[in-house]
Amino acid sequence: MNEEQEWLKKAKRDFEAAKINFREGLYDISAFLLHQCVEKLLKALYIKRFKKLIKTHNLVFLGKKLNIPKKFLSICDEINPFYIEARYPPLFVVEKYTKDNISRLIENVGEILEWIKKEI
What we know:
It is built from six helices and no strands. It is mostly helical. The chain has a single domain (3-119), classed as Four Helix Bundle (Hemerythrin (Met), subunit A) (Up-down Bundle), CATH 1.20.120. The model has no long low-confidence stretch (mean pLDDT 94).
């Protein structure tokens, strides 16, 4: 298995874990895992295109480097703060982590996953 496929495989596992946590009502953990999934998806595509890994957790930065579609860049912008906010109490804003919001983001990340699979 080549490197981008390894990143894609791990991204899929993060996506499944996000859905499991969502079903259990752990919306903040689901949100964090959605960020992790998208980060790994974008890194897989970056490795495919540029033959090297870029070290960053910033989804918008990665998305712009890869010139992803604007609708996906908008999703990245929404998910980007979850890397830190979902994990640390002073930054945690419960209103961001509602069932409806995270459900919508799971659908959005599923679209990104399918698009990246086609690109790789």
